[in-house]
Design goal:
heterodimer, A: about 425 residues, alpha/beta, Aspartate Aminotransferase, domain 1, Aspartate Aminotransferase, domain 2, 2 domains, seven-stranded mixed beta sheet, four-stranded antiparallel beta sheet, globular, B: about 150 residues, alpha+beta, Sufe protein. Chain: A, 3 strands, about 20% strand
Chain lengths: ~425, ~150
């Protein structure tokens, strides 16, 4: 069915397939209804995937079907719909646990997203375990959601924040890691992949060094799960946080994975229904992990959608996705070089990046670039990308960011380049 | 969106104010200063005025941002110099009306270079950029009147 409205759905003719690859990007694009529309009279080129990805039909269908056929509250009713809703919700948890390489489904806590997952750890483990003079090691590459929760906890506990800095290519200065860790470091909390620069961090090495110094490691995986296979067991992390909406799932659902023994010892996050065992006047006892951390009616449809997104990503195949995106990034970096006055931030070696290309173009401000590209049907992001420490490191207040997904094509890159040529005409930056 | 509206948005006059901002720099003998930022995009304006007997005798600004926000504050500071506070308030009101689609102010010579910003009204997500300077102006007037 064609939705009515101001945005005509029309399909671009398929791009000629790359003979070197059997990755059928055109067929994948057919699964994403939002991609097939005109924006400002131009065919949409959606390159704002690091903000959120579009959703495939399979995810839309399971969310729709859940509400149409199975909707009920979970873990409460004796009736048939409640049984089905509970099965769907817990089945989704098992699916995600298996995909993540968790030892057990109870290690998967549903949250609203990466931000809530990190806040959960800060507000429970952080307040329980951190004391005056303890240290939390972050990096200057972090998204605000992996900085501010720790500032809040540090103010309440007397703990100190320390930072691992970046080099001039936006890579972590690994040679400094040992020096910024101390005997007081209780936690190292670091992004798997930078949302502002696309830098892929040597996360396994960081975790190993943190453990050797007696610290735990939390990984912000928000920008990793849309692009590569993550296995928490082989990474060796203690906490891993991500959102579903950047990997083709619904908004408002995400995951905190944590080692079972840590979860057992942690204080509950929010109090309410679902998370209790017995409630007395002054004291209550808690439900078992994971429900101890899931107060209130959860986002059941979101969880079901998140599992469908996992199915979708695995159906396409992470190896194929990574190969496709890597060739896109290489192509984009080459094409952007043609534009006079452009400055691309982040690692020079494409092998050290994923998903994101942040850049500046002459003295054209990123917001102006974004408006001009939008008028050309090209959706990108302009701003500080919730990473003001990164902006300060680069000596800018904002960047323009194009970010890629499994459904983007070389044609999308060409459209970006053509749009930037319009910016040049207007701003005379060439 | 047509090429036409894009060219109406980025007129040479706007780019000229962006590249060569008028009245930029600190005002040593300011009587009021307002800091305004758009947290969404990071545009920042520090508007500094010297007000004597309800008249703006000098206006300057410091900050950074997109061409629209910077051109607007450059044009605005040119226009408000020498104006009574009530006149400056009227200017802010008329500019805000213009941003919300009123075409009459765009024909008014009193609006000076600000008329070039009329095209912004066709770009809803950018209206905030143009209004940042005037939000600062209104705050500065309020603060001056309250005698803080």
């Amino acid at each position: 069915m064609q939705p009515a409205g101001p945005h005509p759905i029309h399909d671009e003719p398929p791009a000629p397939s790359d003979p070197m690859s059997d990755y059928d990007v055109h067929r994948i694009r057919q699964e994403f209804p939002t991609l097939h529309q005109e924006v400002n009279g131009k065919y949409l080129a959606y390159l704002d995937n690091a903000a959120t990805s579009q959703k495939p039909r399979s995810v839309l269908a399971v969310v729709d079907r859940y509400y149409r056929e199975d909707n009920a509250n979970v873990h409460r009713g004796i009736h048939e719909l409640s049984r089905r809703a509970t099965l769907a919700y817990e089945g989704a948890r098992e699916r995600v646990a298996e995909w993540l390489g968790a030892a057990d489904a109870s290690e998967v806590i549903w949250t609203r997203g990466t931000t809530e997952a990190i806040n959960l750890v800060a507000a429970t483990w952080g307040l329980d375990q951190l004391g005056d003079g303890d240290e939390i090691l972050l990096t200057t590459m972090e998204h605000h959601s992996n900085i501010v929760p720790w500032q809040l906890v540090a103010h309440r506990t007397g703990a100190r924040l320390r930072y691992l800095e970046m080099d001039d290519q936006g890579r972590l200065r690994m040679e400094d890691l040992d020096a910024v860790l101390s005997d007081r470091t209780k936690l190292v909390s670091v992004a798997h992949i930078s949302n502002a620069l696309g830098t892929v961090n040597p996360i396994q090495e960081i975790i190993a060094v943190a453990h050797a110094r007696g610290a735990l490691a939390l990984v912000d995986g928000a920008q990793a799960v849309p692009h590569r296979k993550v296995d928490v067991a082989s990474l060796g992390a203690d906490f891993y946080a991500f959102s579903s909406h950047k990997m083709c799932g619904p908004t408002g659902i995400g995951v905190l994975w944590a080692r079972r023994d840590l979860l057992e010892d942690m204080t509950p996050y929010q109090g309410g229904g679902e998370m209790i065992s017995v409630v007395g006047r002054d004291e209550s006892s808690w439900a078992a992990v994971p429900h101890k951390f899931e107060a209130g009616t959860p986002n059941i449809a979101g969880a079901v959608g998140a599992a469908a997104a996992v199915d979708f990503m695995e159906g396409v195949g992470y190896e194929a996705i990574q190969a496709h995106e890597s060739s896109l990034i290489r192509y984009a970096l080459e094409r952007l070089k043609e534009i006079p006055g452009i400055k691309v931030f982040g690692p020079v070696d494409p092998a050290e990046r994923s998903g994101v290309i942040s850049f500046a173009l002459g003295d054209a401000h990123p917001h102006d670039i974004a408006t001009i590209l939008d008028s050309e049907g090209v959706a990108i992001r302009a701003g500080h990308h919730c990473a003001q420490l990164v902006m300060r490191h680069l000596g800018v207040t904002a960047t323009t960011r194009a970010s890629f997904s499994l459904y983007n094509t070389k044609k999308d890159v060409d459209r970006l380049v053509e749009g930037l040529e319009v910016v040049q005409e207007i701003f005379g930056t060439g | 969106m047509s090429e036409l509206s894009l060219s109406s948005l980025y007129q040479q006059l706007i780019l000229d104010h962006y590249r060569n901002p008028r009245n930029k720099g600190d005002l040593p003998d300011k009587t009021v200063e307002i800091h305004m930022a758009n947290p969404v995009c990071g545009d920042e304006i520090r508007l500094q005025l010297r007000v004597e007997d309800d008249r703006i005798v000098e206006a300057r600004h410091v900050g950074h941002g997109c061409s629209i926000s910077q051109a607007a504050v450059s044009m605005m500071t040119n226009l408000i110099k020498g104006k009574e506070l009530s006149e400056a308030e009227g200017l802010a009101r008329r500019f805000t009306d213009m941003m919300h689609g009123d075409e009459e102010p765009a024909r008014d010579k009193e609006m000076g270079d600000l008329r070039a910003l009329q095209g912004v009204s066709k770009f809803p997500v950018r209206i905030k950029c143009a209004l940042l300077a005037f939000d600062a102006l209104q705050e500065a007037i309020k603060k001056t009147r309250s005698g803080d």
